[in-house]
Each structure stands twice: as structure tokens, then as C-alpha cells.
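lol so apparently i was supposed to do this last week
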Amino acid sequence: MSIEFTPWPDDLAALYRKKGYWIGQPLTEALERQAAQRPEAVAVICGDRTITYGQLDRLSGNLAGQLALRGLGHGDRAVVQLPNIAEFYITFFALLKAGIAPVNALFSHKQSELLAYASQLRPRLFIADRRHSVFADDRFLGELRREVPELTHVLFHGAGEEDESLEALMGEAPARVVDYRPSPASQVAFFQLSGGSTGQPKLIPRTHDDYDYSVRASVDICGVTADTRYLCALPAAHNYPMSSPGALGVFHAGGTVVMAPNPDPQTCFRLIAAHGVTMVALVPPAVSLWLDAAAGSSHDLSSLALVQVGGASFAEALARQVPEKLGAKLQQVFGMAEGLVNYTRLDDPDELVFTTQGRPISPDDEVRIVDESGNAVPEGEAGLLATRGPYTFRGYYRSPEQNGRVFDRDGFYYSGDVVQRTPEGNLRVVGRVKDVINRGGEKVASEEIENLLLRHQDVTHAALVAVEDKLLGEKSCAFVVSRNEELKAVALRRHLMGLGVADYKLPDRVRFIDAMPLTPVGKIDKKILRQMANELALP
Ligand code: J2J
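anyway here it is w/ J2J bound
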């Protein structure tokens, strides 16, 4: 049984195979190859543990076998939520080996997000960390089981006495030989998370063929080798530290992934010095903190050769400081979990590296820059980004309406970004039309939070907009019309927390107004609200 997804049309699929992009190889092949050739090489460093390729292969094989023994396999889905620890990759490979397609929730996600993923995916398997606040007791688990009766297996990292333990299943091969294998390479391997712009966060089916190509090509572009020591300081589940070239790229090349709990400079500098880290992927606010901290740091950062920055707009003035202050080359990355990833190249002139967000991975990434009617804008001018290609998806999971909005007739995906192309062919991100707040790389879909605010009995209208912020680039400001004059911002915050939404989505500011400003057609005028928010934010 295979998992439904929107396939590429036959002619394009044939082209991608002919050009050698899709090679019919599952994402697990890289791990098995490394384990066979260099079993003693270190794949992951996590705290004081080192996990070799041999161990990563064996532990994930054990877990795959145990899951297969329990009757899980092709066609099954899983919701997984683990922090930045080695078990994240062991679990990921185990599920792929057994042909179970997971979605990896971010560790910052809470009840609201987990339930949204589970209600769309209908998983039979759920894997989580007992130490996450959501699992301090069994209330949410009960709710999940009620909402998703398909759920039959729950495994915990850091399991309590009553739980089935994730580590126990990794530690032991199944009692009898069981047959398991990855899903076919042309089929769904796993689901990525959309940064979203809709009320319900959407899921992105990624096939082995398409994802493996983006990883392999990223390895070449970013010069990853067996000597690479990559610091994973962003949430491991995110598309960027997973695939651009991310941990999967490092495993492909046989290098080492060093896990960091977060991008805090003190923690990361210590890890860089201790393990000779050569490469790191960061978001702009983290780079700002690193630039400030580097000058006074006593840690030896000299091993660091490449700093990738992406996920949100990165100010040119900061970009220029990276080589001098961090002693490393800068690479800008403009990507999306839906597919298209752009990199500045390692041999691009400095000027391009400092002022653009790079160019697509593949010669067969088609990028159109168009106006609101879908017509190409004059070369060099800003317009909407529309793209299709060998690793850009063709449809969100079970979301025909949203798919109708974001794809055109030719299958081009409209990312909601406003970009321009330089004469050299590099892209510059100059704006955005989607209703998303980019909080230093963490995406908040306005509609999702507005819907949750509207569930408060006193709220009659709610609108979430971005307000400029020095460190994060953007923060969120909620405008609220209330039928109760006494309603306070703290009460709304408590309301949202009660609904179990991730902390980064809580509005940074709340403003009560008497009525929403409206556009001539009667929609909430977010342009005016943005102005109001920024004026109010001035000191
Ligand atoms: C401006 N905006 C950017 C950049 C992403 C690599 C790197 C990042 C992501 C990612 C990713 C930007 N400058 N350099 O998946 O593989 C904004 C755009 C884009 C959205 C996608 C990867 N880099 N963005 O950030 O799915 O608005 O992926 O459409 O989280 O982030 O967000 P996401």
C-alpha cells in the first residue's frame, strides 16, 4: 500500500530520471553504504556519546525490525517529536527502513500543532519525548487517542514505567527475523512541515527520489566531505538543517553531525572548539548573537570554515561582518520545505554572497518571476516567485483547496515570496505577499493564530501582523476587537497557551482597538494595521 501524493507529470518525471536526478535510491542508502564501508567512522556526536555509522545502522535496523514485527509498514504514517538528540536520526532512518512515513514535528510544537498533524495524517504510530511539557501527564495522549482511533502504538524517549520505551526497541533486534524494506523511491518517504499561511498547518509529501536528489546536489554545492563536522544547532526536524545539505548531506558524504541543543553562542562555541566543527547552518538572529559574542570569546573557532545563513532576510551589513568576525566563509541559503533551495556558491564573488540569496540547486529548477496575473515581469524587476522542478512538491497532503490557490495550471508553485534576479542569475528576496510572520526563521501563519484568538468568548475580530524587530527581523502584533472592555493581553496569552500553541506563535504584542480598518472591499486592512503596529512600536 502506498501513500497518496500529487505526482509529477510523466514527461517531467522521465526527464528527471534521464538527467540522473532521480536515481531510484531510498534515503536510507547513504547510511547503509557508509555503515558497510566505514562502520567505525563517527556519524553523530551527542553530548558525551559518539555514534558510529555501524551503530546508527544497527540501532535503526533494530527499531525498524521491532516496528515491522508489530505489523507496521508500507502505507503507515507516524507523528514524531524528538529534540536535537541522536535518537532523532536513529528513529528517522528506522521508520524509512520499514517504509513508515513520519512527519517530524518541531520540539517547540505543542498540543495544537501535534493534533493538527495527527488529524491529517491519521498515524498508527506516535513517538515523543516524555520530558516534553505536553507529556508531563497523560491528558493529551488521551485526547490524541480519542481524536485518532487509528493510533495503536506510542513509543517514548525517556519512557516512564508504564510506557513502551523507544530506546528499548532500538537496543534489541526482534526475536525472530522479520522482513522490512523502504517504500519504493518514487513514493512518499516522509512529510515535511510547511511554514504555512493557512489556518491549519499543511503537510508536504516528499519522495525518496526528489529529496535524495536535493541532498546529493547540496553536498556537491556546499563541498561536504567525510571530513565535514557539521553543527546541528537549528531544530533537527526543519528542512534546512536536515537537507540543505544538513545532516542527511553529511551522512551522504560520511562526515560527522555534532548536535547542539540550540544556537546559543556560548554552547555552540564550546562545541565548535571541542569537536573541530567545520560548518554550521544558522538563521539571521543567531548570527547576530554569534557576531557579538565572537569578539570576547576565548574558544578556538579556527576550525569553522563555512557559515550558512538562511530562513529569513539577512541584512547586508551583517553579512559583510561574517568572514572577519567568525573567520569563516559565508553562504546564503534561501529555501523552503516545499522544495526549491537556492545557495550562493562557494566561488561566487563576495559582492554576490553579501547581497543575494543565491541561485537554485538544479539546472532544471524552473523559476518564473511574475506579476499578480502570472505574466513575467521585465528582467531584473521584482515579482512573485513561481517554481517547479525535480525536488519541488506538486501538492500539499489532502488539501485540494489550498493546492488550487498556490499552483498554476503548469504546476508552478507560488511560494508567496517577492524576488528579483540579478544579471548573474542570483535571486534576492525583497518581500512577501503571503500572510506569514517570519520571526527570525520561525514562521507564524497569521490565520492560524487569528482563529485561535477568535475562540476566546470576548474576541469579535482578530488580526495578526508583523512588526519590525531589531534582532528577529519581525515580531508579531495582534490587533483585537473585544466585546469586553476589561479583557487584558495576559488573559489572551493565557487563552492561547491553554489551547496548546507553540510559544513562538504567541503574539509578542496585543493592541485592543474599537474597530478593524477595512479595505474598500471590506477585508481587514493589514497594511494599515502594519503601519499602526510599527508606529506604536517606536520608542
Ligand atoms: C529571506 N527569506 C527566506 C532567505 C527562507 C533552507 C533554508 C531555509 C529554509 C526555510 C529551508 C530565506 N531570505 N534566505 O527549508 O531548506 C523564507 C521565505 C520562504 C520561507 C520558507 C531550507 N530563506 N526564507 O526557511 O519552509 O519566505 O524553509 O518561502 O521554513 O522562508 O520557510 P521554510
